[in-house]
Amino acid sequence: MTFKFSQRSEKHLTGVHPDLVKVVRLALTLAKQDFSVIEGLRTLERQKELVAKGASKTLNSRHLTGHAVDLVPYPVNWDKWSEFKQLADTVKQAAKQLNVPIVWGGDWTSFKDGPHFELDRAEYK
Ligand SMILES: [Zn+2]
């Protein structure tokens, strides 16, 4: 089965670092379950809103520089962590194939962020 991104997902890839876009696109070809890009590049205004709501913990988000994307399984069930985990495994596999170091927010211990993927700060400043 092959999936194709919706126009909405494509729009959210605009302004995202090309290496991360490559990873996301390869992941889509490897994925067993369809997924959507729900956020990419973010304005400072939007980031401030998210922090105020408690949806984000930092004003130093990688979304502000196009180094992060938020992906969710499609159709999304926010209670099914296993589906986020499976998507993360697929994205990690794609990143490995392309030799692009990424970090999954679901691996964070303090604030687990299942949809969040970013380019590793160590290699991408
Ligand atoms: Zn995010």
TrEMBL record:
Residues 56-119 form the Peptidase M15C domain. It comes from the Bacteria. GO terms for molecular function: peptidase activity. InterPro entries: Peptidase_M15C, Zn_M74/Hedgehog-like. This is Peptidoglycan L-alanyl-D-glutamate endopeptidase CwlK. It comes from Lonepinella koalarum.
